[in-house]
Write a structure and sequence with these properties.
alpha/beta; Rossmann fold; three-stranded parallel sheet; 10 helices; 43% helix; globular
């Protein structure tokens, strides 16, 4: 059976080409250029890399990247003050707080301080609530990436059994709500789930976001399953043992080159949408 590669690089390129046109329209009509502010606390190597990649993506589509770097010793109150300044800055259209932050910081409190109209990474609880209820709100970028990839490749979700492995507040939970809103039948699994392989074997689509390298095994899967791997672990491997699972599936996201590139594209897209609402 021929496997469909759900190539995120193709999707991201298509999104970026559209965003270039939309940003240019904003500039021509208003003289304003969208600004995405990225807050980096500390010097976690992976976070530094991600922030650089996001800055490069900004420049590719015409967004101005505003990088705010804070020391590892930053307190919650100091970070909240920075977020307040960015909320009040009329030039800033989107705000991203790079995850994770140092332990002494209350990350959830800081996420929720980001104004909803600038929450281009979709991390505010109010944004999550609005999206869950099919209201107006920005989506968490990685879940939005997953839905965008499935949509681009016309993967039918209506009535399908989807198993999400992972329940994090910025990935597992929000992607489950987006899948539910797309008329999928969703089962959320986690570290306390019993008989996980038996549950996964029922799935038409598996979304792995558990943060454990090669966690999902081939004998957990039924023939023809669609595999979406939102994990990225040391050694450039995802949460699915793709080398052995690929024979069972009909379609899959590669790691790297699957969900990751589109996550950044969705951050850009929601920043542009925020700018359009603000300026047009």
């Amino acid at each position: 059976m021929e496997k469909l590669i759900l190539d995120g690089r193709v999707v991201a390129k298509a999104v970026e080409e559209d965003l270039k046109v939309r940003v240019q329209r904003i500039v021509e009509k208003t003289g304003k250029t969208p600004v995405l502010a990225t807050i980096l606390v500390g010097s976690n190597p992976a976070s530094v890399t991600y922030v650089r990649m996001k800055g490069n993506a900004c420049m590719r589509v015409g967004i101005i990247p505003k990088k705010v770097e804070l020391p590892e010793t930053t307190t919650t109150e100091e970070l909240l003050a920075v977020i307040d300044e960015l909320n009040a800055d009329d030039n800033v259209c989107g705000i991203l707080l790079q995850h994770p932050v140092p332990r002494q910081i209350d990350e959830r409190k800081c996420f929720d301080r980001i104004a909803m109209d600038k929450d281009s990474d979709g991390v505010n609880v109010a944004s999550f609530g609005a999206v869950t209820m099919n209201g107006e709100g920005f989506k968490c970028a990685t879940p939005y990436s997953i839905m965008s990839i499935l949509g681009y490749y016309n993967v039918d979700l209506k009535g399908k059994d989807v198993v999400v492995i992972g329940r994090s507040p910025i990935l597992g939970k929000p992607v489950s709500m987006l899948l539910l809103n797309a008329d999928a039948t969703v089962t959320i699994c986690h570290s306390r789930t019993k008989n996980l392989p038996d549950i996964v074997r029922r799935a038409d689509v598996v979304v792995a976001c558990v943060g454990r390298a090669k966690f999902v095994q081939a004998d957990w899967l039924k023939e023809g399953v669609v595999l979406v791997d939102a994990g990225y672990n040391e050694g450039n491997v995802g949460d699915i043992d793709l080398e052995n699972c690929i024979e069972k599936c009909s379609a899959y996201t590669p790691v790297p080159g699957g969900v990751g590139p589109v996550t950044i594209a969705m951050l850009m897209k929601q920043t542009v949408e925020a700018a359009e609402k603000k300026y047009l």
